[in-house]
Design a protein that fits this description.
Layout: E1 2-3, E2 9-11, H1 23-39, H2 61-66
Antiparallel strand pairs: 1-2
Length: 75
């Protein structure tokens, strides 16, 4: 489990006991969670620190229509 400072579970990884764990992947998840929190962005699959990020999607239709000029979010 990845639990943030407020006590909220942000991510979890589940493997059978017979399968090895990837410490590298766990560190990547922590880095991605920190980047998302710091910059209000979305990290794509396989993202690594230093890679490009995405803008978050619009939270609702009104925001998407307001952002039709290409600023702020995508829908």
């Amino acid at each position: 489990f990845f639990i943030d400072p407020e006590g909220i579970i942000r991510a979890r990884l589940s493997y059978p006991a017979t399968i090895g764990r990837s410490v590298e992947e766990m560190l990547r998840v922590i880095a991605a969670l920190q980047r998302v929190d710091d910059d209000n962005v979305v990290t794509p699959e396989g993202w690594r620190p230093g890679d490009d990020v995405l803008l978050p999607p619009c939270p609702d239709q009104a925001s998407a229509l307001a952002a039709a000029d290409g600023d702020g979010c995508w829908f």
